[in-house]
Write a structure and sequence with these properties.
Helix content: 55-70%
Shape: globular
Number of helices: 13
Largest sheet: none
Oligomer: single chain
Order of helices and strands: HHHHHHHHHHHHH
């Protein structure tokens, strides 16, 4: 029996890998053969639901799943194979084509008129779109700051201090009602959605699972600390302008005060966070470990790549 009574329920499998992992967590058989990951779609539902289920053991676990399975050797062997398949594909498809300065400069540029998800929601989004968007993003925002916190013991000096300062804000600056995850739960309530942690895992599309797993794989591995910092930088740099558009969408559709506030809060907060992350976290890390510049750049480009895939998927679904 799980020691986390409030953990989400196990999801339904979406293929041989995920069904076997979920069955093993439930106590219904052996884990899949790690070699099964070799031919799996590196961005597909089956691999990423299996990987998400493995990672969730490091967060809140699942109702009815033994907590000892967090460090179960056969399950860790499967997780390692899934991770490798995913990372190999990312390094092929989302490799940085220039220097770290070039990569950061690319995400700092805000187009006069864009075509992505936040632009669509600002200009034409309806409440049904905003609800569908919140369902997907709940897998991210209800654990928003947690995977980034794993990098703190792997940093020192300016990088650690800067990262801790940003995380302090993410966790509500000591006030439970201001936790950013709590603010997103309030947004969901405004939209008439169930804000229970993990409630919409079965509804999560593959690109959304990929995005959450990206945070987890970078956060859980010390060797990927540079990529985690790059991921965090990409999130903070792009958050403020996107949040401004989403706040307008919430206001225009009458989504509710909490729904609008979640994004207006991020407009100001993330504009400040961007400066701290670029100058203190990245600057401090490169001061001590300049060899991590390529990994930081990879974290940025990988984040842009998976976010773009999510945007394309949702816009295609809505267009259909």
């Amino acid at each position: 029996m799980s020691d986390e009574r409030n953990g989400p329920f196990l999801p339904k499998g979406r293929g041989a890998l995920s069904a076997a992992v979920i069955g093993y967590l439930r106590g219904d058989g052996a884990p899949p053969d790690p070699d099964g990951a070799l031919d799996a779609d590196p961005y597909g539902d089956d691999l990423h639901l299996a990987l998400y289920a493995c990672y969730e053991l490091h967060y809140r676990g699942f109702t009815g799943v033994r907590p000892e399975l967090e460090w179960d050797p056969p399950l860790l062997a499967v997780r390692a194979a899934l991770e490798q398949r995913f990372l190999d594909a990312l390094r092929r498809d989302a490799a940085a084509s220039g220097s770290l300065d070039d990569v950061l400069g690319g995400v700092l540029v805000e187009p006069v008129r864009g075509t992505g998800l936040s632009w669509f929601l600002q200009e034409r989004g309806e409440l049904r779109h905003l609800r569908a968007y919140a369902v997907q993003r709940s897998l991210y925002h209800l654990k928003e700051a947690d995977p980034h916190t794993w990098v703190l013991p792997r940093l020192s000096g300016r990088a650690k201090a800067g990262m801790a300062a940003v995380q302090y804000d993410e966790y509500g600056a000591g006030r439970a009602e201001r936790l950013h995850a709590r603010l997103f739960a309030d947004l969901m309530a405004d939209l008439g959605l169930d804000a229970t942690y993990g409630r919409y895992l079965d509804e999560g599309c593959a690109p959304m699972l990929v995005l959450v797993n990206l945070m987890s794989v970078f956060g859980l591995h010390r060797r990927l600390r540079g990529a985690l910092v790059g991921h965090f930088a990409a999130v903070e740099i792009t958050s403020s302008p996107a949040s401004r558009r989403l706040a307008r969408a919430m206001k225009r559709t009458g989504a509710g005060p909490a729904a609008e506030f979640f994004y207006t809060e991020h407009v100001e907060a993330d504009a400040v966070h961007e400066q701290v992350v670029r100058h203190e976290v990245i600057g401090g890390l490169l001061e001590e470990e300049p060899e991590l510049a390529a990994d930081i750049a990879f974290g940025v480009t990988a984040t842009t790549f998976v976010e773009d895939r999510l945007s394309e998927r949702l816009l295609a679904d809505w267009g259909a």
